[in-house]
């Protein structure tokens, strides 16, 4: 089993989004975790450990403006059109 990998990806507008992966094996099912408003990826820490021990690979991210992800400089950066712009 691989250790937790800490990564970032940059959106087209230059916002850094932080995420962590814990990939057990390439054939394991992958669960993707998103936190609620005001939270961060640590919300899934204990659940993730349990599910990983049951054979799942995990991906958890900090949404823009949360945790280790960048905060958009303008309010418009939180609008759905901005979020849907994709990443580089």
Total beta-strand segments: 4
Residue share in helices? 10-25%
The general outline is elongated
Cα distance spanning the termini: 29 Å
Mean pLDDT: 89
- Trace the largest sheet across and list its strands: 1-2-4-3
Residue stretches low in confidence (pLDDT < 50, at least 5 long) are none
Count the DSSP helices.
2
SSE pattern:
EEEHEH
How does the major sheet shape up? 4 strands, mixed
As a percent range, the share of strand residues is 25-35%
Q: Describe it for me?
A:
- The protein has 2 helices and 4 strands, in the order E-E-E-H-E-H.
- By secondary structure, it is of the alpha+beta class.
Layout of helices and strands:
Layout: E1 5-10, E2 16-22, E3 30-34, H1 45-53, E4 57-61, H2 80-83
Parallel strand pairs: 3-4
Antiparallel strand pairs: 1-2, 2-4
Short account of what is shown:
With 88 residues, the chain is α+β, with helices and mostly antiparallel strands. Helix content is 15%, strand content 26%.
List keywords for this structure.
88 residues; alpha+beta; four-stranded mixed β-sheet; 2 helices; 4 strands; 15% helix; 26% strand
